[in-house]
Design brief:
Blueprint (H helix, E strand, L loop, with lengths): L5 H10 L5 E2 L2 H4 L15 E3 L4 H13 L4 E4 L16 E4 L6 E5 L4 E4 L5 H9 L3 E2 L12 H7 L6 H4 L6 E8 L4 E5 L11 H5 L7 E9 L1 E2 L3 E9 L2 H11 L8 E6 H10 L9 E9 L4 H12 L4 E6 L3 H12 L1 H5 L5 E8 L5 H15 L2 E7 L4 E8 L4 H20 L18 H4 L2 H14 L14
Parallel strand pairs: 2-4, 3-4
Antiparallel strand pairs: 1-2, 5-6, 6-10, 7-11, 8-9, 8-10, 12-14, 12-15, 13-14, 13-17, 16-18, 17-18
Helix pairs in contact: 1-3, 8-13, 13-14
Length: 460
């Protein structure tokens, strides 16, 4: 690990106390990797307590031309918080205060280090919740959720992070503190910079405070478990469900291998099938039966084997827990796993499923699919033997073909995980040259010295 310039070290210690400025390699190591399993060592790690400290830090890094990478809890899967250019990690773990909950306005004002799960617990007594619910919700931070525009199962009805934020305070790469938006649910006042910052993975500015749009906790939830002969039948059911008026609050998809894992590893009794949908509806006691009946009717097609309601709350929780456990369970099948979260228009999900099956056959690889299919967001998991150079190459080739067919269907590289390092070089396929040029122009305006999370999102 290269050490920082001595003058920069001294300047950091003028801003941060000794226990908030980590310079020892052993202490910095834990901040050098995320859930992508990629590692790069930072030269220092700082843990601010205030937005003013963050502002002073950015100004200092700009003066010394030192890379600065923001970090939440490192749950990202694309390497977005890995310091590939070295420099300084700014960890927001100590900026974890819920500043205010304004129940009457359905607004929560929070610092970026607040954990999603902790916020949900605090909101529960008000009968409110913040809709984004990624698998990592219990231990991922709000700042990280916003950086990647995290979604989760209920985004099909309630939207992803970008749809549930009213205002943001951020520090740009010039060290300027800006306020974007306001804590109101309706606004037509200039450019919507909040939506630009959300999903930018810390490359345009560091979010130091956010006003979040809250929703009321529904009175009731109920789940339908629908089994299908094959993936195609399930995908056709999804297209039908999403083309009628009743919007499910969750519409999750599991292919045959995922169903097998749920049955064998989670111990849930399921009839062997080619695919399963978990369909959730929420609402009040009077209208929920109608919603469930409508969804069940549309979900029944020629390839449907069985549909039934969860019997009780325990069975609902059991199904949802099994769905959340799928990603780690897949690592029990194979030593290597490429997990992509591509997204296509819902009507084209059947075509995506057909093409993925063809790619798996062509490369003689197991490709397992599950995801938030009501948004067209499918997690395509390419499994391979990491010790086999041949399988590793076939897996990379298959991934490229998955991206190509996704874009050909009018989709995008990521629905919620973001771009980071993992998908950066494919951005030239996803966007036209003029579009990428405009993105670079925006980056240059907001971060003219190129210090904020360099090497991420935009291809070289």
């Amino acid at each position: 690990m290269n050490t920082l310039d001595k003058k920069l070290q001294q300047a950091l210690l003028q801003i941060f106390s000794a226990d908030s400025c980590l310079l020892d390699a052993a202490e910095c190591l834990a901040y050098g990797y995320d859930n992508s399993r990629q590692l790069a060592m930072p030269q220092a790690v700082v843990l601010p307590d205030t937005k003013e400290q963050v502002q002073a830090l950015v100004q200092l890094c700009r003066e010394y031309k030192t890379p600065l990478v923001a970090r939440g809890r490192g749950t990202n899967t694309t390497g977005a918080s890995v310091p590939i250019a070295g420099g300084i990690i700014v960890s927001f773990e100590r900026m974890n205060r819920i500043v205010e909950i304004r129940a009457g306005d359905r607004v929560a004002i929070v610092e970026p280090g607040v954990l999603n799960g902790d916020l949900q617990s605090a909101l529960k007594s008000f009968g409110l919740f913040w809709p984004p619910d990624p698998t990592s919700a219990a231990y991922s931070s709000i700042g990280g959720n916003l950086a990647c525009n995290a979604g989760g199962p209920r985004a099909v009805k309630y939207g992803a992070s970008r749809d549930n934020v009213l205002a943001i305070t951020a520090i740009t790469g010039t060290g300027t503190m800006i306020q974007c938006g306001a804590a109101v649910t309706k606004s037509s006042s200039g450019y919507d910079l909040s939506r630009l910052l959300i999903g930018s993975e810390g490359t345009l500015g560091l979010i130091v405070e956010a006003s979040l749009k809250l929703s009321a906790i529904p009175a009731e939830r109920q789940i339908l478990r629908a089994l299908y002969r094959d993936v195609e039948s399930a995908a056709q059911a999804v297209a039908g469900i999403m083309s009628q008026p009743v919007i499910p609050s969750m519409l999750e998809f599991l292919d045959d291998e995922c169903v097998r894992l749920v049955r064998e590893q989670a111990g849930i009794e399921l009839t062997p099938c080619g695919a399963m949908l978990i369909i959730e509806a929420d609402g009040d006691i009077d209208t929920l039966p109608y919603a469930l009946s409508t969804l069940e009717k549309v979900a029944r097609n020629e390839g449907c084997i069985e549909i039934r309601s969860a019997r009780n709350a325990d069975e609902i929780n059991e199904l949802l827990a099994a769905r959340k456990a799928l990603s780690p369970l897949l690592r029990t099948i194979s030593s290597g796993k490429i997990n992509e979260d591509v997204v296509v228009p819902v009507s084209r999900v059947p075509a995506l499923c057909r093409q993925v099956a063809s790619i798996a056959a062509e490369h003689a690889l197991k490709i397992v699919c599950f995801g938030h299919i009501g948004n067209g967001n499918v997690h395509v998991n390419i499994l391979y033997d990491k010790q086999s150079p041949d399988e590793s190459e076939r897996a990379k080739s298959a991934m490229l073909q998955v991206f190509t067919c996704t874009i050909g269907l009018g989709g995008q590289l990521s629905g919620e995980h973001g771009i980071g390092i993992a998908k950066r070089d494919f951005m030239t396929q996803a966007h036209t040259a003029p579009t990428l040029a405009l993105m670079r122009d925006i980056k240059n305006i907001m971060d003219p010295s190129g210090i904020l999370n360099p090497g991420k999102v935009l291809p070289p």
